[in-house]
Structure prediction request, 476 residues.
Amino acid sequence: MTTTYTAKFHAPKWGENDGSKSVTNGEALDTLDAALADASPFAPDNSINLDSSGNLHGLTFGYLAGRIRSGNVVTIVAAGTLALAASATNYVEVATDGTVSTNASGFTSGRFPLFEVATNATDMTSVTDERCWLVVPGAPATGSLDTSYFADFDEDSASTTGLTWGYQAGRVRNDNATADVAAGTVTLTDAATNYVELTPAGAVVGNTSGFTSGRIPLRVVVTSGGAISSSTDKRAWISAGAGGAGGTGFSDFDEDSASTTGLTWGYLTGSLRNNNVITVVAAGTVTLTDAATNYVEVDSSGTVSVNQTGFTAGRIPIREIVAASGAISTSTDKRSVFQFSADFKSDGSVAMTGDFDAGGNEIRDYAEQTSAPSSSAGTLTIDCSAGSLAAVTLTENVTTLSFANVPASGSVYSLTMELTQDATGGWTVTWPASVTWPSGSAPTLSTGASAVDVITLYTRDGGTTWRAFAAGLGMA
Prediction:
């Protein structure tokens, strides 16, 4: 029986380089070792998957060690094996906690695809590599990820001395903006564990507390006696060979010299991963605008486009091309292996747009924002986008109360107002007609100095009507 083992080469958010390799029977062992040498993390374990003749066999799939990063936590995953379902397509994937598993339904949202393994009643018949990281030509096919095969933000031995840690140049992408980071140094703290990391803005910094949420870990450096005693690489990506400034050592969506001419810019094929879905994009061309700067980018569906305004939020930059006199004058590669999601802000919080679907899961350990609006000349405006609790200190009678940035009709918005009298007291609030009360009567607020009243309101029609209740009066 002829069996096929297919290795595809992928890059993060891009890159199948049209380099699929299939081998059969006796060719498998030698050819696959060479092919899979390009992608060692979680690579198939040939000692388990192939028999002595180089054929796929059995229903046990072996994989080599790898490394995975979730946020600022890096997990080393040991080599292992999985029991496959017979006469099925098995989807091998790894979760963010490093658990490698398989199922016969399909790749799971939120997990990283590794392999599709087809089986008959007794044996594996084909293995297709679905990993979506950039491969490094010549990397070993055994053991865990060997990060010495890429240079971006690697340790620079020439500038590392004493309590100074030097790093090589690299590139970082924050949504649609890429930044080339020059080589530099970080000053370490003596007699401590130093955590070197990369910020979304491209700054390489160090601290002695731990890796910071929203930043990329680079190195753990332990110091003693004015010198480095140990230096541990914490980068958890496969980068582009001797990438230097990054991004130019792989072919996916790279410039195609054969189809680039005049005001036509050609690009090579590539692959794009959107969560657990991989899209292979064919080679093609875009038409440039003369006497302009052209921004070439790819969206999540795999459409490559160009505009003259700038890179678009939510799309991946590919190339910045300046055209003049009917020809290309400069062409700058903007692809980047290292990337930040625009959802993550510099303070570690997450910026979101649209609806959030928790999928029936519990939401725990969260906090809501508080605002502290104040009145002026009797007018008080509550900005609903500033928080769900408005803590108001009354310093005068509020004769005009309004609500700004109320969610649109069809959404329910709840607001709590904490009204505190100042040291003088005696201040009142005149409620607008849009605020309705039980039995049609607003409560009488406490007027004593420093008295506190709590009012709760909600609206489901964009603020046209507010249902209001006295949650607590005279609470001070």
Remarks:
- The longest strand covers residues 216-224.
- Helices lie at 28-36, 46-49.
- Residues 1-39, 133-149, 237-249, 338-348 have pLDDT under 50 and may be disordered.
- The longest helix spans residues 28-36.
